[in-house]
Amino acid sequence: FSLQGSLQVGRYLAETNPLNRSARALGPYAEAGRALLAHSESLALSPWPGASLQGENRFRGFYYTTQNPGGEHERQVDWTTRLAFRQTLGGVSLEAGYLRSVQEGESPFRFEALPSRRTHQANLGLGFQEKPLALSLKGGRDLEGGKYLPLEAEGRLQDQGYSLLLYHKRGLEGEGPLETRLEGSLSPYPLALRASLRYDHPKALFDPLLLQGSYALPAGSLNLAHRQGLNGEGALDTSLSLAFREGQDAYTLQARRDWPKGLSQLFAQAILGPRSLSLQANLDPQGLAYQVGLRFGTAPEPLWDLSLTGRYQEGFRGTNLRLALSQALPEVGFRLSANLHLPEVEDRETYLKDLTFSGGAELWGPTPPDENGENALPGLAFSGSLTYTRKPSSPEGYALALRNFGPTLTFLGRENTRLHLAALLTQNLPGEPLKPRFVLVLDRCCWALRVTLDAGKGSFGLAFLYGGQAAGLLLSEEGVKLGGAP
After folding, report:
1. Which domain of life is it from (predicted)?
2. What single-letter DSSP state applies at residue 450?
3. pLDDT at position 368
4. Which of 336, 404, 337, 383 is nearest to 483 (CA)?
5. Which residues contact 283 (CB under 8 A, 6 or more apart)?
6. Of 311, 377, 421, 444, whose CB has the highest number of CB atoms within 10 Å?
7. What sign does the dihedral 19-22-28-30 (CA atoms) show?
8. Contacts of 465 (CB under 8 A, 6+ apart)
9. 28-42, 71-85, 222-236, 391-405: least confident range
10. H or E element, residue 435
């Protein structure tokens, strides 16, 4: 036997419950006091051999300082009581159960409002089990509604390598038969077969017949499934999947056929170490849509991703070659994506539809002056994002969007003093005159000074920061990167 209890008292300001009329009158938010009383008791006994008795009682009571229109303080209760008894005599078992579950009342707060629910029922079950046979019969009465629960009968024949299940559900209040289900399986390793069928008596309709088969490969699996309509629909869908792995290489094949729609789908992928090749195709009565992908590259080298997409319908249509290239190094970090239009039935030209670049790179580092203060060479880096879009309807035929895009010069002086000068563009071209933003940052060992001149906004800014990482913070606030990956 165990007993647990708790009491929480507090005051809350929260969104009101829209389903509570008195709470809605308080506005969208309300403040109220709340006490939460919770306790639970559980009992587990074995009074004699073969018998077991289990009981559980859980209670949560929410009590609020708000009042309903009748002047009573609002409350809500969640109370569940369960009791189960089981007696086993050899292969015969008898079960009896009792359940009462109530959720009622109202809360002024939306976050803890409980839906109203009331369940009150008693159950009785009889079972017999003697391998490989198992039989069960279950019924009960709804004490809340004053009617009998449906009677459920189940027979199962199960042993190593096979299984057969027959289930029937029948209403005792004049409904008659409700449901009949039949399932069977054979599993002689490495093969496994399964079939299931269900009949809905009130609707006088069969659920689709499900047939499944699988084969366990040494390093993978092969699965086949089919659904067949038995109410005049015929074949519904068929699916096939194959997965195989050998060392670092992996192969996947998935195929599906939707018979009513005449749609066939195929996906195949081969992972060969750092390389990946994939094919996706959808075939319908109008045409074939396809996508071929290729990925290769290993870090820290560039990573390539190529994808060819389109549709064949009385000729090639919507044909595009997509390219994605990325790299992440301290000195070079970027992502480039481009979409190239290839010749098709309605457009025979080849052109670049769009391109996006984001990142940064240090082309070369600064060279400090010699002992005579000469021969210093500034370092050069660039960063930002650039987006190109082809627009045949515009006079220029394209649109260019720049965001914090531009070069940065770095001068290295004595005592590790650095001077960064960046010219950045954040605007849409063409159609607008160039209005750069100049950023000048003086970096000393333990402090940094930033001067900003924005031609687009017509503004001037000055910032000073003390600390070892001051220059990097002042540069990043203006969108300036001196290299690749952070």
Report:
1. Bacteria
2. E
3. 80
4. 383
5. 263, 264, 265, 266, 289
6. 311
7. negative
8. 447, 448, 450, 473, 474
9. 391-405
10. none
Report which listed range, 254-268, 329-343, 388-402, 444-458, is most confident.
Answer: 254-268
End-to-end, the C-alpha distance of the chain in Å comes to 59
Three-state SS for 375-402 is CCECEEEEEEEEEEEECCCCCCCEEEEE
Task: Say if strands 234-246 and 209-217 run parallel, antiparallel, or are unpaired.
Answer: unpaired
Q: How far apart are CA 283 and CA 290, in angstroms?
A: 9
Q: What pLDDT shows up at residue 484?
A: 60
**Considering Cα of 415, then 361, then 477, then 430, what sign does the dihedral take?**
positive
The dihedrals phi and psi of 241, each to the nearest 5 degrees, come to -140, 140
Q: Are 306 and 291 in contact (CB under 8 A)?
A: no
Q: Which residues have C-beta within 8 Å of that of residue 392, sequence separation ≥ 6?
A: none
Is the pLDDT confidence value at 192 over 50? yes
Collapsed DSSP state (helix, strand, coil) of residue 208: coil
Domain boundaries, the chain: 1-84+96-111, 336-486
How many helices and strands, by DSSP H and E, does the chain display? 2, 29
Residue type at 236 in one-letter notation: L
Q: Range with the lowest mean pLDDT among 31-35, 217-221, 480-484?
A: 480-484
Give 190's Cβ-side CA count (13 Å radius): 9
Report the alpha-carbon distance of residue 77 to residue 80 in Å, rounded. 10
- List, in sequence order, every residue forming a beta bridge with 235; answer none if it has no partner: 228
What local confidence, expressed as pLDDT, does residue 437 receive? Answer: 87
Nearest CA-CA partner of 35 in 9, 56, 53: 9
Backbone angles phi, psi at 181, to 5 degrees: -135, 140
Res. 486: pLDDT tops 60: no
Strand partners, 92: 89, 128
How far apart (Å, rounded) are the C-alpha atoms in residues 182 and 277?
Answer: 43
Query: Taking CA 443 as the corner, what is the angle to CA 440 and CA 445, rounded to the nearest 5 degrees?
Result: 175
Q: How far apart are CA 383 and CA 407, in angstroms?
A: 7
